[in-house]
Specification:
The structure is a homodimer. Chain A is α/β, with parallel strands linked by helices. Chain A is globular. The first copy, chain A, has 10 helices and 11 strands.
Amino acid sequence: MILLDGKTTSSDIKDEITLEVLQLKKEGKKTPHLAAVIVGNNGASRTYVGAKVKACNRVGFLSTLIELTDDTTEASLLSKIDELNNNIEIDGFIVQLPLPKHIDEQKVLMAVDPKKDVDGFHPTNVGKMALNLPTFISATPYGILELLERYKVETSGKHVVVIGRSHIVGSPMSILLSQKRTVGNATVTITHSRTRNLKEITLQADIVIAALGIPEFLTEDMVKANVTVIDVGITRVEDTTKKSGYRLLGDVAFDEVSKKAAYITPVPGGVGPMTIAMLLKNTLLASKNNN
Amino acid sequence: MILLDGKTTSSDIKDEITLEVLQLKKEGKKTPHLAAVIVGNNGASRTYVGAKVKACNRVGFLSTLIELTDDTTEASLLSKIDELNNNIEIDGFIVQLPLPKHIDEQKVLMAVDPKKDVDGFHPTNVGKMALNLPTFISATPYGILELLERYKVETSGKHVVVIGRSHIVGSPMSILLSQKRTVGNATVTITHSRTRNLKEITLQADIVIAALGIPEFLTEDMVKANVTVIDVGITRVEDTTKKSGYRLLGDVAFDEVSKKAAYITPVPGGVGPMTIAMLLKNTLLASKNNN
């Protein structure tokens, strides 16, 4: 069994980006600049955004953190986005989700200029992804493609089973892996809560992507030998034996499934760390397009 | 076996649209107006566009046919599109494909205002479709959804196998049928030229959508009893016994597969006639949005 180590891989990617940034600077080109907008005081969101800013610093990007209070109106957030769209110093920006309930998330995502949408959430970028045109692929699917590529996991002609149909992971993953691309050309089955004979289907899979958000859902009896398993889930479960009072569980019963798997991502340290690296890659691309 | 009769169904839809147009006129609202741009002298393209214009007349839409010569430059086509984007009389328009080789098709499709893109080919509309947001769904996938809905073919929890991954049919079909929607909630497998064990997969299907463009590819040994079969293929095959010198074949060996099927589309007269009806539905929607 080979561990698909997202921590090491994302660190490698960050090192590669650091070198690219040094090269850009040497050529007198602009330093990539990411902005992040956060509305309100959600603790998890603050942690995520903080990690993104820190990652920018590490690779030599400029970063701008825009913190808005909980009572920010939709109109004032939209006007801030408009400002970022028009600020030529900013190459790309993200609006950290979730937003407070009085703000229409879809409306906000639609307001981001697709050229600066390094999260890849704007319909125009989702459409380009679906049409296999150059675009910003959103961080989680992009990170999974990158992990599979760097570990040389063959996907062409393989049967991939995706569990979960979210717009963030399951749906784009199923689209990408079926396309003609380096990591692609797979036969892909997308399954979800309405799927009747899930186990019968996962047992056929060469690669399983578990992205449904139910801790330890995928058990060893559901996969065949030498399967590759990508675990996108990450759920906090109470654990009084831990100092923090909780531990993190993926959607895969790691201990038992890992015994059968050829390749498997751990949780934490698998897909999670890849997402920030891919956000940086998208920002670098935005910056090059903006040079 | 029940025939999914696209000819009758599309005729029903046209009748419904005719009534809606009469109602719109009665309310003093604008008459839906579709424009079609055709470049060059491709015989098949002229036939298709002609049928679209005729269908507009039948339901009481206004239509404008813009015929450009083979040597039209990309720039002049783009300027024509710009004109249509800004013409408030026109609710929606299509650019008939294929375009002459000196014109970049993707660039042209990207130039169409998504609000007037009744073909649903613009990345913004493809993205909205993938995100299950209201949009123009392109005619062939939309027509298949409509056929399944009108014949009350259950899709929820069923296993759909799509053969072919084109951006026009296979890919959007696989996305749409897996979504939470009236005709949807299916477990969907997308297969293509790189799929290794196709027969093993199609034998599991409750619904097969054949969209690969190989005449009579799907044979009776590849499907289980009581399958529903949607045949998107339409290929001209030489036939000296016919006055025209050819006959039209689908991707399904109809004579043998129909004996096993619960529901099946004929070719011609299945999916084909639905596409124009759905283009009219999209134009009606564009007109309502423009009212």
